[in-house]
Amino acid sequence: MSIYHAHGKLLLTAEYFVLDGATALALPVKYGQSLDIATDRKDENLHWQSLDEKGNCWFEATFDPSDFSIIDQNDEAIAIRLQSILKELKTHHPPPTTRHSSLKTYLSFPRSWGLGTSSTLIYLLAKWAGADPFDLQFKIFGGSGYDIACAGAEGPILYQLKNKKPFVEGCEFSPSFADRIFFVYLGKKQNSRKGIARYRAESSGQRAEKRIAEISALTDLFLKEKTPEGFEKLIVEHEKLVGSAVGLPRAKSVYFNDFWGEVKSLGAWGGDFVLVTSDRPAEETKDYFNEKGFEVFIPYREMVL
Q: Does pTM top 0.90 for this prediction?
């Protein structure tokens, strides 16, 4: 049996702007996805199962290993997407073997959390096939690729696209005030394409270049900041800059306008997780969000790798 593992991701800075070359600070998380590959000599087909964080099988399919035609499945749309990934691999980087194979993926987080179900899968399959996970990601899903970088990282990273090529650098980001930082799950799934379209409409020419430079500078300041008060000021500045670029209100003003700390969107604005800061006890902070109906509340050190 072969076993592979990939980390999930959070994007702390440069959401949207990372697509155009801004330097982003990205955080691989302790949650992730694993891929186990075993040989089943009783059946020459390729069998696939995807298990959630509770061990329940949420997707399964059987493929003909010769051309990856779908023999059986319980979700046609997912089966077709997986088929396209397998075909792409076979064309450019054939896996060691696909006959008599049983593949199982195991998530350690709920799929709805948006921590990288697809990106970790791409990374895992690329590693199995000996392919470049960035190439596979760009061909199948597009995007900036920061999530692929997080999948294989062992700590915070700086990520940038230079001439459409990914550059990844490990960095020191371990705030001394981490016990005042938490992650709250909004559960408001956003359409990334719509957000990117708004960003594209608002960002062009010299204005875009200026904003990219400003965002990259903020990323550097986030790395260097030593105080919680300074960190919160950077959050506000970053939120204002991104908000003006995508034409959307801050998550804080929409959901938490009476919150005493700061709130920062992560990735697609207003979608999955937000980062929050608080100078009050963790339990009091948690109660605030729970009372507003947001039950998933994770301290920084329990989330970030």
A: yes
